[in-house]
Amino acid sequence: MTLAWTDALDGxxxxxxxxxxxxxxxxxxxAAHLRMVFSNSLYRCFVxxxxxxxxxxxALADGGDCSYLCDIAVMPSHQGTGxxxxxxxxxxxxxxxHRKIILYAVPGREPxxxxxxxxxxxxxxxxxxxxxxxxxxxxxxxxxRGTDE
Length: 149
What we know:
Pfam families: Acetyltransf_1. It comes from Piscinibacter gummiphilus. One of its GO terms (molecular function) is N-acetyltransferase activity. This protein has helices at 14-23, 31-39, 83-95, 110-114, 131-137, and strands spanning 3-6, 43-49, 52-61, 66-74, 100-102. By secondary structure, it is an alpha+beta fold. It has a single domain (3-109), classed as 3-Layer(aba) Sandwich (Aminopeptidase), CATH 3.40.630. A 5-stranded mixed sheet has the order 1-2-3-4-5. Helix 3 (83-95) links the parallel strand 4 and strand 5. It is globular and about 50 Å long.
């Protein structure tokens, strides 16, 4: 396996990147959406194996205070090879110097990220486009029942 790494946006096949997210499986992320979010991210990486996109990830960062790792995906054919660890390590290294590096994990994958030094946040909160779906998927806890605040 000969892997080629790049962070350059020129030459990215956005449809291929969209297909990677579907295959990983990390959901339906349209090519135009991915072009926008990767273009607005300070750090990113794309990994190719013999010209085929097999992994990608990005970090939305401000250069000093906060870097948020997200959209880390590995093709099923390359999962279990350590490539996901390499992508996360690459983005964490690029994010060094920020006061905090954050991410949210697929429920059940927290032990994977602990290996990089990530700890669970007790006060993290989020507003998602589809709150109910994210509660059902385990990303959010609906702790608003029975409260007046």
